[in-house]
Amino acid sequence: MQLEKEKCQSVEELIDFFKRLKDSPVQLVQVFSTKSEILNQRIISAFNRYLPLSTLVGISAEEVIYENQVKLKEIAAAALCFEKSSFKLLKTDAKSKQNANKIMKSIETDTKAIIIYSDDKYNNGDQLVETLNQKQTDILIAGGQAAWGQANEQGYLFDRDGIIKKGSLALILNGSQLKAHWNYNLGWESISREMEITQAEDQIVYELDGRNIFEVYAEFLGEDIFEQVPSAATSKFPLVFNKGFKNARAAVDSVGKGIKFSGELEEGTKVKIAYGSLNKILKDSVRLREELNFHPEIAFIYSCSGRSNYLKSINSNLSEEIKAIPAPKVGFSTNGEYGVVDQKIQFLNMTNTVLYLSEKEEIIHKKIKFNTEKPQVKTENLFHLSKKVVSELETINKKMTKANKLTGNTKVEKTAANLFNLIFENNNYSGGIIIKEEALTRIYLEENLSAEAYDVFHSFWENKPEEITIKKEVLSFKKAFLIPLNQEIEALMIILSNELDLYDIKKSHFFIEQIPNYLKKSILYENLERNVASLSTLEQTSDFLYSTLELDLLYDRILDIIVATMGMSAAIIFKKEAFKLKTIQSINIEKESELYYYLKGHYQEIAEADQIVINNEVEFIEEIKTLIAIPINLGDYQGVLYAIQSKYKQLFNGNQRKFIRTLANQIRVSIRNALNHQKVKKLSVTDGLTKLYNHSYFDQELAKKDGEKYSVAILDIDNFKDFNDLYGHQAGDQVLKKLSELLKSAVRQKDIVARYGGEEFVIYFSIIEQEILLQVIKRLMEKIRNLEVCFEDKKLGVTVSMGIAINKSGNDSAESLIKKADNALYIAKGSGRDQFKFHKNID
Prior knowledge:
Blueprint: E1 2-8, H1 11-20, E2 27-33, H2 37-50, E3 55-60, E4 64-66, E5 69-71, E6 75-81, E7 86-92, H3 96-105, E8 111-118, H4 125-132, E9 140-145, E10 157-159, E11 162-164, E12 168-174, E13 179-185, E14 188-190, E15 195-201, E16 204-208, E17 211-212, H5 213-221, H6 225-228, E18 239-242, E19 246-249, E20 251-255, E21 258-261, E22 270-276, H7 278-283, E23 298-304, H8 305-313, H9 318-321, E24 329-334, E25 337-341, E26 344-348, E27 352-358, H10 383-406, H11 412-423, E28 430-437, E29 440-445, H12 452-462, E30 469-474, E31 477-485, E32 490-497, H13 502-507, H14 509-527, H15 532-546, H16 551-566, E33 570-577, E34 580-587, H17 594-601, H18 603-609, E35 613-615, E36 626-634, E37 637-645, H19 654-685, H20 695-703, E38 710-717, H21 720-727, H22 729-746, E39 752-757, E40 760-765, H23 770-785, E41 788-791, E42 794-797, E43 800-807, H24 814-830, E44 836-838
Parallel strand pairs: 2-3, 8-9, 23-24, 43-44
Antiparallel strand pairs: 1-6, 2-6, 3-10, 4-5, 4-24, 7-12, 8-12, 10-11, 13-27, 14-22, 15-16, 15-22, 16-17, 16-21, 18-19, 18-22, 20-21, 23-27, 25-26, 28-29, 28-32, 30-31, 31-32, 33-34, 33-37, 35-36, 36-37, 38-40, 38-43, 39-40, 41-42
GO molecular function, one term: diguanylate cyclase activity
Domain GGDEF: 708-841
Pfam family, one: FIST
């Protein structure tokens, strides 16, 4: 295979490229052009004049890709002369299904790959691949839809005969010695719960879970979404759905009360709102060369224009991602990409795809390692989303606290009424709950419903759905939502409303999921009316647990409940962290004791079984008369709570065992709430690279110390730019990480160390005695001088310059003290670096 390629700013430069090429009937020239239709007509004329024997395939593009560059207003061209293979160009002038049928009929016995280019107006990518998949084939498919860019009103194709605005061009590549490989990278992360498309037509989505799509986006992304849809907000936050693999659809335009997407999204499809995680996109870019088992001679890149625009909006570029592709590169930004995922042809969107080709004869005995440049992974924050998650957690926590107060010592009917009225406090609705309790079925109805409702509800119970179901026009209400509740108890909740939609129901799913626990608690109360203490405990423990989102305090409360209210003599919580078992909290269990090692040794079997253990027969350990073990498995969080009675056996009847299961569920829910709160809180106050506190957090903490006496040190890595220039940004990042670890380990627990920006760090000391602080600083400087940062095969030395200011009187403001320390830092740097200076040169 002979390859010639060129990047041109003008049509004249491309014509010069045509002139330099040797004309041949086995030569395929692909032109990716951002130019106008008039200029592309000139390209066609020049091609026919200078290359009458060659084949031309042209595509309009928003951007062109050439090597690691992504350019607007330019042209990229690649001329391939096949030496051991052949190709055929199939031109079609119909819509999707007819074009697909013509393409599949043109397949030959030795066809290896088909590159499909289609217009973006008349050809529907989803319909095209649906028809292609009707004929089973293992042929590789690649390509994409033409894009219009700034110079055109629609995406189109062209060949030597002219412009093609309706149809497709299919390059059918044949030959037994031709090697072809295709891969893709998505990298979009879900940020919402799963929602169902409830109204859609002709690629336009109007409703998600029964709510207008603009309102849904506004809730997740902020109220200003209405002024920015879809160009700024929804194009950055596409809908992703699962087809056995994660696929995406980007917003194209707002159409009335709906949003048009880049592909078909049918009613009933389950989707999530996603955002482009730059970290994940760049980290996963190595996918583009996975399973590549030959050395490619050319790589054709077909990448979604929406993806490229998004990367630009967050100060990155598609060129960062395609660095991982190990071959000469040419391509364009498409309006959708074609490929084969899990042996099915797919229409992709917001993806980056690559097609590798080669005719080389080579024998590969082992996996090829490609030496391509790795992209620089960056960190980004979703502040609105973080704020929303914290807000939702707090709302749920308040609602559950209120539920605990309303459903304490109450019977089932009263509990059902209170819970039902809590679900949507600011909406008008009615309905009830049907509860199965052993052989008894109990129906709770809102008081405003007539006797007819009993019969209607009973019929719903007899045909109880397995998932949320909507009935229309029920008992003079527009909608009835049937919500099955199957955990802890078997129940069916019916919500009647003229206002609520499916979105409201699903938004409240977390609280609704807890309703069986409260109902179960009430059933226990009725069954154990004589055991007032047990029921009172459930109320108090629920309130006690749900009223805090701080993990350390929560652990203390959990153990207090176990020991104080359940009559146990000791308790301990183990948690697996980084493959090690860690003691989180304990009462009356000594570390290194026989009891401690016994409990620790049985951790794994209890965690894996994921079942509560209540045991009154524990061999070998006399200290255990009764053992309760509660596994706490919450995704990445895996722990076990043990409770021990060492003086006498605790005999639990059926109702008491149910009580323990309910309490265990409350413990899990409270820990999950606290973990979610901790994750979001940490995201907002820490620096992504160094894991130290960030600039904003440090300033906030310092502002709280107004009037206090303390010291501040600012340090700057000497000649930090040299690390990046000599060894690359990854070396610089490694230096920042290792220095951060040293600083964090060197300061006392009450002190605060933060990354203040770039290579600058800041430390808060509670020390104001200059002589003591002087010794602390000297030790710290010596530790830094002894620090060796290993990068690849090199050991990098690090020194810093430091400025220190002491607020001896407590009269300095945080801002003033920072400025003094900064002035001292400049003196230290100007005096030769690798030293420290106190403000006003106090030695």
